[in-house]
Amino acid sequence: MHTDYHIIFPENRFADQAAERGIVRRRERVHAAVQLGAWLLLCYAASAFGALATRDASDFYNQLSLPWWAPSAGVFGPVWTVLYALMAVSAWMIWRGRHDSALDEINVMPALQLFGAQLAVNALWSWVFFAWNLGALSVVTILVLLALVVATTIKFYRINQTAGTLLFPYIAWLAFATCLAFSAWRRNPNLL
Questions:
Q1: Is 130 helix (H, G, I), strand (E, B) or coil?
Q2: pTM exceeds 0.85
Q3: Computed over its alpha carbons, how large is the radius of gyration of the chain?
Q4: 2-40: per-residue pLDDT in tens?
Q5: Best label site of 2, 18, 158, 174, fewest CB within 10 Å?
Q6: Residue 131 and residue 52: Cα distance in Å, rounded?
Q7: CA-to-CA distance for 188 and 135, rounded, in angstroms?
């Protein structure tokens, strides 16, 4: 004769359900961590591609006639490290919302495509400025980048306010970098 132990010991049924929920939650956390890792990898891969153009950037940067408010070359690495992390977390938050019925992929996928476009232009800018020394084109490129980041931020903010807000420091830094690139181009016609 078979006896359902959940009838005799109902607390075991609840324990089994709790254990299943715990396993599901653990899987969800692992899945979320893997997704975040993928976004970090993507953003830092774009950074690495751009960094290939900046191997001698410090020497080149120090040769430029720059305004008094220009930071030292050593500031850029730490700032960009933080900005790429913020970009990755922001994109990950949007990615995680793609199956939310209130958001659906109609809103999320165009926002992520815009994010991908700005990431590509971001990587390209280092080549235009540091490797190819094209001053005017670098200013145009960074203006396009700034416009793409503002558009991405607006789309992200409409989907997830926290994700959009995480891109605010990126916009601020790009606005500063745009002024710096323009000034460097105008002050260094022989180098840019």
A1: helix
A2: yes
A3: 23
A4: 555 555 555 566 655 655 666 768 888 888 999 999 999
A5: 2
A6: 9
A7: 9
